[in-house]
């Protein structure tokens, strides 16, 4: 059971006397530059119609900042070149756009792919994907404007599936305690049909079905190890998030992750161990009458047929049936019911399974038709060999009784209460987001907090820290920093900054596409999909403009919270936004706009 914790704001960062923003007509320098190659902008195809698809494509930020260097930014062109932007050159007539790497293109058609994405895991390491199933680990060198080092790929991997689109949510590089190796942790986000998700437990555990959740978010936590100068795959964990993921990051030192999502969610696959509840191990029973029948099976000269019986309401999404050349595994929801080595090899390609009215039938064609089977599963006494399907039906009542006893798990006692006794006020709303800490060693959620406010945006933090996120608190926007696991205290999130009235303001901007803020949090910018930019300077911003006077008292006000509105000279959609302490950058398909917000 996860530990509940609270997000506690710091009172010294709140300003209960804040009166609002004053509209400023002061002009801001805006520099417009044409990009060397048009920016990549892929859109969903006809099969990508879910809300998760629209969110993944529509909110993709094509401008990428670098936590290790505030002098550069990056974008990916439509021909899959990665360009480095020298920010200081944007105030000149000769901006510096340098192509640092060409992402390999293994297919001509990119229909159904996500937009290519990039994340910096270390001071000289990046993780790149073409959006179509290939993950590249790239040596970037020191990423300063003066460094002309071209990037070099160290490993290209299809561990997440060939031609299966995904985007990189976060990546981080950690050194082992002995300093003998490095571990790269990557968070990759997929949107998959529930029929195509590779899972070790049934997706119905999380309420998935074809009608309500035909597509779900899958968060892939993949790790690579750097040892003796070579990168190699280490492990993969997969989490199912049916109702959408808002935030994901790896917590230092790489043993846990932080998520913002709606319940239910949970782990469904681990490359190192099975996440399904294991088959109960019992001592060898001498008296056959005491053995509970779990399945029946029969053989002919051509094939072996297995029957199992479940509740009549059981659907295919309640079952995981894994058939190998000489192994069979059946998982009902998150409980393993059959798992073991078959008596003889079978033909996997010709094997099938069907489900009707809760009755599961598995057909296993024999690889060697001359062999007779004395048993189905090695060392499994819960099976009964019968002559045919008719004889198997005689055991149905026995199997049903066995399953009901297993599922009850409480000695047959009636439930403490009925759901019909609950009133409307007792119901937990399904659209309530929570923040979680998931432990990679135990595969369990260890901490949870219910979010009382809307997630406004997230932003890069200092190198080595997870990205910070901003939540609405009353009318303000509060910035929270997830803690690393190095601290010897209970895990939580630290309140680091407050953006006055941002929650109230953002709620009124219906055309808003991006919300960004610089590392020093002196301003916040709301960018519409087209043309309009709203900049909200905080009271602590040193760019004061004109000095203002409070008329009733004559008191001079030095730092005033100000609002500035800009109309960008472009008819193209805004594809990316990035805020630095000095510049606000906006990217369209053909142009880059640099707005000088603060002087250095």
Automatic annotation (TrEMBL):
User: What's in the GO CC field?
Assistant: cytoplasm; nucleus
Spell out the InterPro entries in the cross-references: CS_dom, HSP20-like_chaperone, NUDCD1
Gene3D superfamilies of this UniProt entry?
Answer: 2.60.40.790
User: Per UniProt, which keywords does this protein have?
Assistant: Cytoplasm, Nucleus
- Report the subcellular localization: Cytoplasm; Nucleus
User: Which Pfam families does this UniProt record tie to the protein?
Assistant: CS
Q: What is its main location?
A: cytoplasm
Which PANTHER family does the record match to this protein? CHRONIC MYELOGENOUS LEUKEMIA TUMOR ANTIGEN 66, NUDC DOMAIN-CONTAINING PROTEIN 1
Name under which the protein is recorded: NudC domain-containing protein 1
